């Protein structure tokens, strides 16, 4: 079994991570993958910006069409990267933590099936080091439906991404 998947599965879920420039977004998941590098194992979600809006005048949000990466280092457990990526996946599909406690349950997101792709995330990226509140209960139309946060308001966009 992939060592990176084990690190995500055994991590405690947390919030945080690196996201697009400050702004309001509708992001589409393009690829979810792991990478082994000189700094250790990483989990990466490649996200296509579908819609964006600056939070305040003078700021520049990432532009529609750009691909932004959400990357977490999984090697240093004290920094909580595995937990943040686990929370990201849980929120994306409306799952509970116990459902992702086994690396085998995570495999479908990282292998050729790419289970999380084409799902949409509506979020705000604010404050240095802060992260969007992706919990389903805080998403417009979001719930633990297994569809993903923000999907209810943007079904037409979601269906366009699924070919």
Order of helices and strands: HEEEHHEH
Instruction: Report the span from N to C terminus.
Output: 30 Å
Number of strands: 4
Q: Give the number of helices.
A: 4
- Describe the global form: globular
Spans of at least 5 consecutive residues whose pLDDT stays below 50 are 128-132, 138-163
Determine the structural class based on helices, strands and strand pairing: alpha+beta
Strand order, sheet with most strands: 3-2-1-4
Strand content: 25-35%
Average pLDDT metric: 75
- Describe the sheet with the most strands: 4 strands, antiparallel
Overall radius of gyration = 15 Å
The percent range for helix content is 10-25%
Structure described in brief:
The protein has 163 residues and is α+β, with helices and mostly antiparallel strands. It is built from four helices and four strands. α1 packs across α2 (81-93).
């Amino acid at each position: 079994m992939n060592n990176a998947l084990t690190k995500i599965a055994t991590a405690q879920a947390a919030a945080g991570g690196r996201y697009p420039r400050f702004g309001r977004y509708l992001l589409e998941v393009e690829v979810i993958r792991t990478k082994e590098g000189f700094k250790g194992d990483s989990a990466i979600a490649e996200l296509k910006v579908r819609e964006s809006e600056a939070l305040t005048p003078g700021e520049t949000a990432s532009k529609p069409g750009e691909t932004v990466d959400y990357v977490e280092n999984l090697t240093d457990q004290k920094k909580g990267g595995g937990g943040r990526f686990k929370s990201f996946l849980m929120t994306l599909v409306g799952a509970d933590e116990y459902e992702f406690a086994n690396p085998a349950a995570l495999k479908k997101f990282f292998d050729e099936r790419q289970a999380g792709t084409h799902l949409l995330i509506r979020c705000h990226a604010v404050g240095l080091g802060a992260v969007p509140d992706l919990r389903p209960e805080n998403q417009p139309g979001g719930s633990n439906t297994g569809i993903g946060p923000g999907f209810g308001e943007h079904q037409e966009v979601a269906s366009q991404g699924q070919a």
